[in-house]
Amino acid sequence: MEFKKAAVIGGAGTMGSGIVQTIAQAGIQVLLFETNLEVAQKGKTKLDKVVQKLVDKGKVSAQDKQNMLDKIILCDNYQAMADVDLVIEAVFENIQLKKEIFKQLDEIVKPEAILASNTSALSLTEIASATKRPDKVIGLHFFNPVPVMKLVELVMGLATSEETYQASAAFCEQIGKKVIKAKDTTGFLVNYLQIPLLNGAVAAYEAGLSSAEDIDKACVLGMNHPIGPLALLDLIGLDTALDVFNVMYEGTGDMKFWPRTVHKRLVQAGHLGRKTGKGFFTYN
Ligand SMILES: NC(=O)c1ccc[n+]([C@@H]2O[C@H](COP(=O)([O-])OP(=O)(O)OC[C@H]3O[C@@H](n4cnc5c(N)ncnc54)[C@H](O)[C@@H]3O)[C@@H](O)[C@H]2O)c1
Description:
One of its GO terms (molecular function) is NAD+ binding. Keywords: Oxidoreductase. The protein has about 280 residues and is α/β, with parallel strands linked by helices. About 45% of the residues lie in helices and about 15% in strands. It folds into 2 domains: about 5-185, Rossmann fold (3-Layer(aba) Sandwich), CATH 3.40.50.720; about 190-275, N-(1-d-carboxylethyl)-l-norvaline Dehydrogenase, domain 2 (Orthogonal Bundle), CATH 1.10.1040.10. The chain has an 8-stranded mixed sheet with strand order 3-2-1-4-5-6-7-8, with helices on both faces.
């Protein structure tokens, strides 16, 4: 299967914009979909700035930046996605919202196209149940920041076909990523491994075992992690992380995933991490 045109739903969000950038940089046309065209435009303007920084550092040529921007088409209606080969949904971690979106996509997007979700922990089988093509629904779980992180975790719903897996893996290679295959269990593989550490860091912070700086230093200097867990939570977005922790806790009943009060309070206060300038740390 050849991928000539893709679409990203929620293309101006934290993950969506990184996915749009990565696809466009690989020379594939991509529709940046948001329900509000102004939000979509803001997303493209943000991407322009992000890539301009790479031009200023000499990592990307001005021509390559222009080529990338030319591949991105702003979009606010489903009909425009009828002829795409692949849709990647990257909206909030909410099962009802994702199912509504997949139902609409299924009615409009050509039948041979693959419908993918970037969900961190929700069931692909349940998302696929909103469509009449569950064999063509798959999890394409990217990591943050998408242009930098090499991995995509491919998640197989109960009905996902091997053909869909192979085509999706080939697409990921085409945009410069490596893949792993995971079952449709709560949190799949990566979050099943990672969230106990992230939540453990929040628990340690809440219990006053050490400062936020020292908790992160312990992981960076003592365990050779590239970024500390609290800084990573700020990067993920504390709201998105809380949604994922809740899904993991509800799905497993395991206290390792139980969201801590301090985490909830930060979200209630609107301190969502990097995107709002404040989370466990403060940003300019
Ligand atoms: N943030 C991370 O580090 C991370 C990592 C891997 C996976 N994920 C997953 O990716 C998904 C998106 O997370 P995020 O952090 O990018 O969220 P975000 O809040 O940054 O972005 C969500 C985007 O979706 C848009 N949106 C909301 N409802 C929409 C609708 N009905 N139609 C179209 N667009 C809509 C919003 O305008 C926003 O641009 C979630 O499922 C999350 O679990 C997040």
